[in-house]
Specification:
This protein is α+β, with helices and mostly antiparallel strands and 710 residues long. It is built from 23 helices and 19 strands. Helix 1 packs across helix 9.
Length: 710
Amino acid sequence: MENQTENLRFALALNRIREIPRETGAVSGAFQGYFQETAQEILTIVDTARYLRSKEAETADPALLKEKNRALYADILPEHYEKSWCCPKKAGEALGEELGPYLCAIAFEMRSMIPFLFEGEEEHALIRMELFLEVYRCFEDAKKGADDAIERGETDAAALAVPKARFVRGILAGYVSDYAQDELSYDLYCRLVAGSPSLNAMMEEADLSDPRYLYRSGFYISQNEMGTAAHLQELSEDTLAKMADTFTEGYRIGFETTGKDLSKKHTVDLVYTAGFERMMRRAQENFKALGKHCIAHRELSTIFQQMGRTNGVTGGAANHQADYDHREDLSLVLDDTLANRMMESLREAFRTVERSAHEYAGPAVVEPYGEKPFAPKETKGRCSFDKLQNRQVTKYRQKFTDLYNEAVIGENRSFTIISFPLPEIAEDAKTYGEIFDETIRLNTLDYRLYQTIQGKIIDALNVCDHVIVKGRGKNRTDLTVALYQPADPDKEDIFENCVADVNIPVGEVFTTPVLEGTNGLLHVTGVYLDGLYYKDLAISFEDGCTKDYACANFAGEENAEEKGRAYIEENILFHHKFLPMGECAIGTNTTAYAVGEKYGISGRYGILIAEKTGPHFAVGDTCYSHEEDLVTRNPDGKIIAARENDFSRKRKENPEEAYFGCHTDITIPYRELGLFAGVKADGTEVPIIENGKFVLPGTEDLNPPLSGIV
């Protein structure tokens, strides 16, 4: 009966929306165009989704399916975006600075119906349509009231023809408040328990040799996704097995090396980008052999997710700028009341999955790299959180992490991440194939060689008080990092010997720095972090915490320094007043560095590979966040002792001050590195890298790939 009622509501809402494009004079001025065109976008999304999920589409011409797939996203594609009601600049100019932002955010929220429709979750699409209709009625009522007033001879009644912004705000706030728990519960259930049915089915049943399966997925399918699928189709079964085996074995070893019992867990979440299904299917077979059940869930991009991060299976990005412009739309309605409501909804959502979530083993992630870099523009009218809202968001994210670790029993779960390139990284298919092959080689390097060499680096640094790092050429790095002092050097290591398990490819040693005594400047001439570019990024530290920061992204523009600081605050500091240095590491994968230089792709590496191509330093939480009390050993049997800092030490008595909910690695490439050396208590230097080359005895085998390029 409940489903029948929902179906009836959906049909009624859809029929009402079908009438709007034909109505004239129902609302005032430019708002008529907004509602008619947004209604048409809703209809396009619903009708196209229904077609692509139909039996007819199973045998349709791929060219038609490509056209239909593009129709789902046409409104926000770069060539259309500036004329779209989803563009804050367009909405503000046409609809006014007060009402424009709300209507723009609502238009963009309508696009979040897409994943729900492809999963057959019409009730989640329905609440969005009802939001749109409620706002439309608000404008209808205002127009009717003004018309009636004019008939009564009230000459100033035209000012009443549109509602006050506070009424629209109230509708949007009510929508978020009323449905927060349902939306968050659905996301958690898919993420931790069941996955998304259509993706689970696609992974098991789709004919992966037929490109139609991609167009029917509901994801935006660009040349990246289509080209990836085509390339994987060309790979031999042996090559595919090599890729999948490295991936799943890394997952298994991750449990083993940390002393966690994989047999107590049941569910593995596969996270990847559309196009990698052939590898995922092989990985699924491997996990089944381990007695695990694989799920896949869609990443959601809704206003409900803007207080916390989401992840999942994705397609191509129809328009990075649109996503950037709308990632803080919740700021339009977020206040203490709504923040408290969101927090309570989060708690209730976790309660709905707490039993099943205990079986969740953790994600197995394929992280693509090579997409053309995105440098966001500052769109006029873009919404952003203010200082109070940033504190509310930070508190929410910290609570999410706590509840997540309680639900899945964080100390008993693990993960693995591996990277592969997207076709966009190369100008032609031949070069892409070469880069893909090189990436397979990087991901399957002999970990035993690196384990031995990295052990020598760790032994050398174990007897040091601190390290010094200096740049060369245009790199201005001048940094001192204090090191933990082991109580028993014969049984404890400072650095972790990281080989290819949870973090593929092989090649780094890392530690949690001591904050007091960690001072100086970290600088890179150019770096991509989470897909965003930073030119001349400079961060200074005082007692291990960020003190000042700058970048040259906006050089030549008005208020360039202020814009640069805001860019860093938003995308690296995530609006925290400061962040501690959570990691000091040496990347040892010189082969990866050489491949990057050979093909000119170093700047487009994902962090998994980039962090292995030179020393790197993370701002935010440590690598052992929420796992400080676990006993972890290096391959030599020694306990890794440096697992916490002054902040994470507060995790029991004051957890809100212990964690920051972020961790961003910043790598200094070998070519920019003058010196990385340990320094003993008596001042004796122990050089590890000088002028981009490894100089510590026993590390010489790392240098051949660097010959002629450093």
